[in-house]
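We close this part of the discussion by returning to an individual protein. Part of our work consisted of pairing the sequence of a single chain with a tokenised description of its backbone. No coordinates are needed to read the tokens, only the vocabulary itself. The amino acid sequence and the backbone structure tokens for this protein are reproduced below:
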Amino acid sequence: MRKQLLAVVCAATFVAGCNWSGQSSLVDPHPILPPSGTSMDVLGQFGDASPARFETEAYSGLQQNSFCEVGADVDPVVGPEGDLMVFSSTRHSATSDIYVKKIAGRTVTRLTDDAANEVQPALSPDGNFIAYASDRSGNWDLFVMTADGRKPFQVTSGLSHEVHPSWSPDGAYLCYSEHNVRSGQWEIWIVEVANPANRKFVAHGLFPAWCPSPSVNRIAYQLARQRGTHLFSIWTIDLIDGEARFPTEVVPATAATAAVAPAWSPDGTQLVYATVSLVTDPKQQGQQPRRVERGDDIWITTLDGLTRVRLTTDHTNDWCPTWSPDGRIYFASNRGGYDNIWSLEPLDTKLIQATRVPATRVGAAKKPEPAAAATPKPAAEAEVKPNGAAM
């Protein structure tokens, strides 16, 4: 059972970042099912004709940042100085562990090493602590350790599965996904790290990501429709006076592609996410999607949803994206034949007016460039207003 659950969690990081996702079905009235031996899919929708920029290059400087040839490197997160990368990997054993490496180097340091699985690392804003999910207790719980792998302590406990931690801007709280065994739904909760008894339900959803901007208390997440296709879209919600307010769908589910696993830009004004296409079996009747373990492409969207830029367009699988402090986007990909971590630098999307063009025409695949030392640069200052400010 533990290995089956790991396949669910690690396969897409969609238990990451990218990252972990629940099932979305075209026929089941409930979009999320309890974890089981059956792999969960990450299907949502995003139409063929979507707001995007004119056909042009979408990024520069594609680089390979990990070099695993056995197992898989996934769940990347970059430190606040832009020089270190933390990730989960099965490169040395059948179970996942947490690793750290310099962006510009090839050597890796193993931070966890036991019979359990450790996945979905999340670095605290000051870079001193790593939160992660582990099944060492028999089910998925959240743990926190120092950035050098010492002094791990358990933050959540119980019979429910808790996964995908994300830090608040002040480093005092974690938001995460918890599976409600009674309702069969995935929920978003907040817990105080220093006082785990202090926790609070926020909303239904998966893969929560806390906005890094201190000017707004906002969480992005993926949520499946309760009707129609039951496929995932990207939402945000504001926390005002301790209450969840203004749930806003940023990337809607529409036709045959999911939008999953959101992550914030350093200034909190944009989101990067993965899409997963709906694939049907012509031998079966009805629109029954296949199970998927990886995403298809990486996209960027502004919070108003008017500008969506497709960064990757080739035939490889790209998933679990994260934005680094220096402006680069890191993601897991099977380009090159192995599951490794790659990065690219998105071109400026603010100067390009959105228009409706076929999604397949946006972006440009480029040959990878050799890994180079990161040059951190401060995030641009921006005031982010609550969703309800204009109401």
